[in-house]
# Entry
Amino acid sequence: MASDREFVEYVAGQIAADAVITYRKMFGEYMLYANGKPAVLICDNTAYIKTLDCVKPYLENAERGFPYKNAKEHYIIDPDDRELLSAVVKELERNVPLPKPKKTV
# Structure
């Protein structure tokens, strides 16, 4: 089941960050970016955070799940918890590198 754009916009709106929040559709699902850095993966209207050391203090007791078949385990974050979501996204924005540019042929 693909995610609803309304849910994606809701999650993006819940992030109170000093970053520019954008999103991109990929295979019916979405990735939210903070200043161009990947932050929140949305699959089946569920918000996932990659299990990185920088967010472990915030999410070590969070539920975990797999956003799609053959994916690594991710944290599941409640988008209604605006304070936690914003703190995690800020931490990711500080610690995650920008994606490598795609090579043109």
Observations:
- Residues 82-95 form the longest helix (14 residues).
- The CA atoms of residues 54 and 95 lie 7 Å apart.
